[in-house]
Every structure is written in C-alpha cells, then in structure tokens.
Amino acid sequence: MRQPLSGVRVLDLSIWRPGPYATSLLCRLGADVLKVEPPGGDPMRHYKELFDAVSIGKRSIVLDLKDDADRARALELATEADVLVEGFRPGVMARLGLGEPSVRAVNHDIVYCSVSGYG
Question: Which 8-state DSSP code applies to residue 112?
C-alpha cells in the first residue's frame, strides 16, 4: 500500500519534542526523514523511550552547524529536501546561515517550517 507522503524528503534540524514529534508523524505517513543531530547526539537521547518513540524510521547524520563545512553540507542536503523542519529560537538559523532566505537560495520550492512548542 502506498503511503501518502512516499517520496517526500524531510530534513529534520529539530531537537527536543515538538519538531521531532512533527517529523515522526511525517515519517509514519511515508516521508523519508533525515534527522540532523549535533555532535554528541540529540540531547533527547537521554530519555531513551521518548527519543525512540519520535525517531523510529528516521535516518540520522551528525553535523555541527557551527562548523563551516558541516553548515555547507546542511545546505547541500536542503537542495534535495522537500521540507525542512527546525525548532531553534528565532534568529538562530539566520545566524548560522541556514535561515529561510539562505535555504530558499538553494531550493526555492522547499517547505521551510519553524516549530515552537513552547513559545
């Protein structure tokens, strides 16, 4: 049976609950989700059951978004994505060079989603 989001590629730059939960729903609907984790892993890994629940079916990669080469790799991954989900405080992605204008410069069709579950 074909899943509704089969073939949709999601770049997940979120940590903690709201973004990972949202992307887990996309994954369950058939999207290919690539989770970007910071060096040392997503801090939510300390809560194994919760992390496992929102990470099942996702692929993952470690990138240090403060590193020029890793930031360039993130932009490269964005060129191949249909959706980008991030959950940083306002302004953080822009300071990292990964704000919506920067991402749209390499992929104008991307759905850029900023998730905030607590503010």
Answer: E
Instruction: Please write the tens of the pLDDT for every residue from 72-98.
Output: 999 999 999 999 999 999 999 999 999
Give phi and psi for 28, each to the nearest 5.
-65, -25
Q: Please say whether the beta carbons of 84 and 78 come within 8 A.
A: yes
Q: Residues in the chain with pLDDT < 70?
A: 1, 118-119
The model carries a pTM of 0.94
Contact at 8 Å (CB) between 107 and 81? Answer: yes
DSSP string, 4-71: TTTT-EEEE---SSHHHHHHHHHHHTT-EEEEEE-TT--GGGGSHHHHHHHHTT-EEEE--TTSHHHH
Find all residues with CB under 8 Å of 46, minimum gap 6, and list them: none
Q: At what angle do helices 18-28 and 48-55 cross, to 10 degrees?
A: 40
Q: Are 22 and 88 in contact (CB under 8 A)?
A: no
Angle at 49 between CA 48 and CA 50, to 5 degrees: 95
